[in-house]
Amino acid sequence: MSSNTLSAVLEKQIRGLCLEDFPCGGGRRRKTGAGTAGEETDSVDALLDLLSCPHSPWRYHETWSPQAASLRRLAVLTPQRLHARFIYNYFKTIRVVNRSVSVVDGGLLKFSKLEELVLSANQISEIPAENLPATLKILELCANQLSSLSSLTSRPLPNLQHLGLSATCLGSCEDISSLVAKHWPQLVSLDLSDCEFQQQQWLLEALSTFPRLRTLVLQGNPVTLTPSYPGFTVDSLPQLCCLDSSWISPEERLLFRGLAKMSDVIVDVAAATVNVGRMRGFPDPMMRVEEKPSEFPVVTYSYFITYEFLSHQISADMKVHSETKLEEAARSDYNRDTLKTATEDLMASPVESDFHPARVFNHSTSRLLWSQCMDFSSTQTYTIKSLGDFKKFLSRGMCVRLEEEKSPVKSAHSKDKKKTCVPELVEDAAVRRILGSAHVSLQSLVSGGPRVQAVCDFGALHTESQPEMTQAPQKDVGKNVKDDKRKEEKDPKRRGGSSARQKNTASLKAKVKGKKDEGVDAGPDDPACLQPESVTVELSVELEKWQSASEAHLLWLPS
Questions:
Q1: 183 and 157 in contact (C-beta within 8 Å)?
Q2: What is the DSSP track for 251-300?
Q3: Domains plus CATH for the chain?
Q4: Over 80: is that where the pLDDT of 111 sits?
Q5: CA-to-CA distance for 228 and 256, rounded, in angstroms?
Q6: Residues 400/438, Cβ–Cβ less than 8 Å
Q7: What 8-state DSSP symbol labels residue 106?
Q8: What are the angstrom distances between the C-alpha of 481 and each of 58, 441, 474, 476, 490?
Q9: pLDDT in tens, 364-374
Q10: 333-348: pLDDT as tens digits
Q11: Can you give the pLDDT at residue 67?
């Protein structure tokens, strides 16, 4: 018999009880009235103590069945009763969890009085109903490889009260047609959490056939991402008492009364709103010391946030994902490290394979000039028809990037050197680069949360060509200033250098000179030595949810 069958695992568990070995079972060490004089024996009480004493080597620690410990006691008290049929009929609860069981075979039928069977976290792809005892009241199949209910519904289980099918691949139309009362007429509790059900109306029509259904778990399914959930479920199943571990109040039923009868309301479309708020901690880009200043250093820096999101519509301010990171890197004059990172991100990105039926777009906020607190105030609402792809997207999370656009202006001199005229300013192409990225987890939205509020931390950013004053010795700073002065005297073109560079250099030189005059070295509390603070941006993602039937009627009726 193969070791991956359920009956083989159960036989091994029963052998592990050692029902015929000391201190269980019969034997010459048991104290009886007919014992031989002088022979060493143990009383029944002493043998029972060996089974329960915390430090006893014969104590049984397994929890696969609550009847296991009591069966060992019976093996001490009345060992003559423990024949095979008695042992199999003694078990009412069996838990075989994470034991790599892949086949539920007919050997389970020997447990003719079994009421509870837990087979969570195994490798079961199908479970024939004819191999299950008709006495079953609880059947738990969580986290298995079930992809169809056809084998489980081949024979009704008339006494089944709870059925657990969470964390499986169920969700097809065939599976919905199997979830009807004729297969489990006494069903009271049903767990379908973390499955792949997307057709909300069909699913609820099938579940409404269970007259005794009181507890239902649907969280983690794509249907829970729609605005109509949970109101549509509450109104469709009036007999339900508990939904997703929350009791349904009379007030809640009153709010959603009549929602199930609105047949023209769109229920299988999700809507999510992404809001990008304030950004703090970004250093002033005008405090840079440029290595190669231009004669007319007219430069503007603008900043914006980009992120990917799933949608079936193309907005005017969104870019299609097919414009890859590599193309952006080529146009934006990325350095080698940035280009390498973009390549790795593109190869690791599952967008193309996981979300082929839908579309993933890059959305950008408006561009803002630098300020100490930049408020993007960007709000975008997305509608998603493919609920399954939306669940995958939320499970993966979203990538948020901070980007900079540098727009320099250079001078174009006149060809006629004799004529003196004002140089014409010509604007160069904008240079765009990614300054930082952060990942935002959206898993809580799949688990039933209404919104995610996050503060994306891009870390401490060093702007391009930013001076590292904490590492340069003071004498080197003075030397660099003198060298720059000599170069400007030799090269007249350098005399019209960047005013920002001159101001920063002069300020730095004065600061160094002041420190020398005072005889004090620059310490960690000096403003020039302070580490830059982290750059953060506020972001929230909220799922659209109807709060009442009247709100659904006003907002979601098709025009």
A1: yes
A2: HHHHHTTTGGG-TTS--S-EEEEEEEEEEE-PPPGGG---SS--SS-EEE
A3: 6-216 (3.80.10.10), 270-466+533-543 (2.60.40.150)
A4: yes
A5: 10
A6: yes
A7: G
A8: 84, 48, 11, 9, 15
A9: 999 999 888 99
A10: 434 344 344 334 433 3
A11: 87
